[in-house]
Amino acid sequence: MKWMNIxxxxxxxxxxxxxxxxxxxxxxxxxxxxxWLAFTDSTGGYNLxxxxxxxxxxxxxxxxxxxxxxxxxxxxGLQIRMLSGYGRHQYEFTEEYLxxxxxxxxxxxRSEIQEIERHMVTGIRVPYQKILLRAQHxxxxxxxxxxxxxxxxxxxxxxxxxxxxxxxxxxxxxLDEIAASLQFRNQ
Length: 187
Description:
Number of strands: 10
Strand content: 35-45%
Number of helices: 3
CATH superfamily of the largest domain: Mog1/PsbP, alpha/beta/alpha sandwich
Distance between the termini: 74 Å
Shape: globular
Number of domains: 2
Radius of gyration: 21 Å
Order of helices and strands: HEEEEEHEEEEHE
Structural class: alpha+beta
Helix content: 25-40%
């Protein structure tokens, strides 16, 4: 009788584990194929879409550099910034921006940062420059910082995002999709 109870308990644990895995897969599928919400920054002059299960903190009303924070739990985040271009060409702006960003992140996160990818994304509504940085923290943890940059009315709209390297396959396609949804309201 004791063995029968143990066998039933083991079967119950296996069943609950499978059910848990199915729920996790289902949640990830919903995140990827689920509903999306719209965010409009009227003063910034743009709008974008983001997954409904992400959290948005709208700072656009403050009319400051940081326009919004968008994140999924503590696993992936994206900060939207409107930065002054001061008449600089995109190449010049990007080089200076990256230099400052890397210096700040290396100091703040106590990590060594290197650029691993840079390219233009075209064939969508509003083309942008995408830059991928890899940060090795002193603890060994590896983060990826994805930068999305658009020139806009003499300024630059920048999405600063970050994910653990182990979560790249899960979140980079969503971040890319958010970036691809961007639309400037005067275009």
